[in-house]
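quick one before i forget lol
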Amino acid sequence: MPTTHLLYLHGFRSSPQSTKARQVAAWVQNRHPDVTWWCPQLPPSPREAMEMLSQGIAGWPRDTMAVIGSSLGGFYATHVAETCGCKAVLLNPAVNPARDLAKYIGEQTFWNNPNERFFFEPRFIDELHALALGSVGRPEKYSAVIAKGDEVLEWREMIGRYPGVRIKLLEGGDHAISDFDSHLPEVMEFLGLS
């Protein structure tokens, strides 16, 4: 069944202006303008981010909505997919952000706008712990693009977190999946939006 509502979740220190988010937005706008598209700027607090998302998608049809998440957004996307039972595409998803982001407590800048700052608070680590889930319930509803060349996250850990999930493993690549445009058609086909 084709996706009618699509949520895109960016990564840590990222924004809706990320290259991948803009590429997906352009695809939806050009090929499926009738699809409801939402790519919000996520607040630094994981609890606030999930509250905002829950409110924003409250009226979305669970059987035809989908979520794409990159890095920390992949962690959030897993939570959304498990809660809603919808399809999810994960792009180099964060597996243990509570562990990995502990070293980023303090003032941070955004990748797309280094002049804009936010404070990553210690309590956010506890909020990430609270969102951690076990194995995914319906692996057939997931697809992932994982790069062996990811310089931020360990690809073996990502694969291990998602047993049974359809995974496209890139031999090289990087954390940003800089050649994402070449994988976009496959991603959108999985979502019924080719």
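fyi Residues 19-31 form the longest helix (13 residues).
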